[in-house]
Amino acid sequence: MVRHRSQRSKEKRIARIKSKRGSARQVVADYIKELEKKVQELQEQVNGMDRAYRDDQRELLRVHNELKKAERKITRLEGEERD
């Protein structure tokens, strides 16, 4: 069977559209992968910041406790001096 020119051009156009659609899917898939990678990097940064914050909080609490201990010791020594 002989295909007419319009039929061949229609088939070519359909093939081209399918090809573009496939490449568009690939572009979207690549973009999604890129976004997922960025999300993972940001999550790692946030986790690092959380750890640093917790470490700072622990250090602050430790220093605060040391300060309270020193204040109690000073108060005790002042009381002994009065006696």
From TrEMBL:
Coiled coil stretches, renumbered: 25-80
Where in this protein does the record put region Disordered?
1-20
The protein's UniProt keywords, in alphabetical order, are: Coiled coil
Q: Which domain of life is it from?
A: Eukaryota
Please give the name of this protein.
Uncharacterized protein
Q: Which organism is it from?
A: Rhizophagus irregularis (strain DAOM 181602 / DAOM 197198 / MUCL 43194) (Arbuscular mycorrhizal fungus)
